[in-house]
Design brief:
This protein has 296 residues and is of the alpha/beta class. The chain has helices at residues 11-22, 34-53, 59-67, 75-78, 93-106, 122-127, 160-172, 188-204, 210-221, 227-234, 236-250, 259-266; strands at residues 3-7, 26-30, 69-72, 84-87, 112-115, 135-140, 149-154, 176-181, 279-280, 288-289. Helix 8 crosses helix 10.
């Protein structure tokens, strides 16, 4: 595992690349967009600068980390000689299946293929490859360089050897890997998403306002961030996608996304990424609560 390939230079992808590079691995970061790669490297640089300022790493450590990362716009070129490929593209089932079909064709037979999916079936992804025993989930938490947890998800055919390899590798990154089985939402999102959805229902039904709901959960349950603000940071579109995976997977109406959440996504109010969700993230407002009523 000297070389790791990471597909996707967005928030999760650049965080995964940063983490492996910081621990001395050679990282081949892949994205179809040169602009995305440039932006991803800039984000890694800024995050490393914060670590230098907090005296968690030295300037020399920063330079070594950056030098461990190469960028590619071609999957075929980018995965050469990689012992592990981690897909961190958008949470879209069709896109992930397309990527894994290509990876199966261009990667060495012994290469382990992992996905950073937060909800999509590992077994479904593995089924379109010729190496289902080497397909596994590595669900990192955001922000990746800081958060300790890695959900290691075994598909139906994932081998014990591959699972052990990924568990051991995660520990070498100073992470805490937790092995889970392949069911909709795994553990993290099976529990988290219904909670966020219920908070949105409470807002929609007029039980309390945005400030009140988030304050209750922060002060009463010791959550570092309220559920509505957290939903904004995850992305309201991502929340809808994951809830739909849970709803389709279990056929239980309790997982159906709240109509308010669906309407907000339809209107393009996706949270931080769009500048507006339950809070206003425009430069002039900087996280103020949206004044409009969210009642049904």
């Amino acid at each position: 595992m000297k070389k790791i390939a990471v597909i996707g230079a967005g928030t999760m992808g650049n965080g995964i690349a940063h983490t492996f590079a910081q621990f001395g691995y050679r990282v081949q970061l892949i994205d179809v967009s040169k602009e995305a790669l440039k932006k991803g490297l800039a984000t890694i640089g800024k995050n490393l600068d914060r670590m230098v300022a907090k005296e968690k790493i030295s300037q020399s450590d920063k330079q070594k980390t950056i030098s461990n990362i190469q960028t590619f716009t071609s999957i075929k070129e980018g995965v050469k000689n990689a012992g592990l490929v981690i897909e961190a593209a958008s949470e879209n089932s069709d896109l992930k299946l397309k990527i894994f079909k290509e990876l199966d064709q261009v990667c060495n037979a012994e290469t382990i293929l992992a996905t950073n999916t937060s909800s999509i079936s590992i077994t479904k992804i593995a089924a379109i490859t010729s190496r289902p025993e080497k397909i596994i989930g590595m669900h990192f938490m955001n922000p990746v360089p800081i958060m300790k947890l890695v959900e290691v998800i075994k598909g139906y055919s994932t081998s014990e050897e591959v699972t052990k390899t990924i568990m051991d590798l995660s520990k070498k990154l100073n992470k805490v890997p937790v092995e889970v089985n392949d069911y909709p939402g795994f553990v993290a999102n099976r529990i988290l998403m219904p909670m966020l959805n219920e908070a949105i229902h409470a807002l929609h039904e007029g039980v309390a306002g945005v400030y009140e709901i988030d304050t209750v959960m922060k002060l009463g349950m010791a959550h570092p961030m309220g559920p509505l603000q957290l939903a904004d940071f995850i992305g309201l579109d991502v929340c809808v996608s994951i809830l739909n995976v849970l709803y389709d997977g279990f056929g239980n109406p309790k997982y159906a996304p709240c109509p308010l959440l669906v309407n907000m996504v339809t209107a393009g109010k996706l949270g931080v990424k769009s500048g507006e969700g339950f809070y206003d993230y425009s430069e002039s407002r900087k996280g103020e609560i949206i004044s409009k009523q969210f009642l049904s």
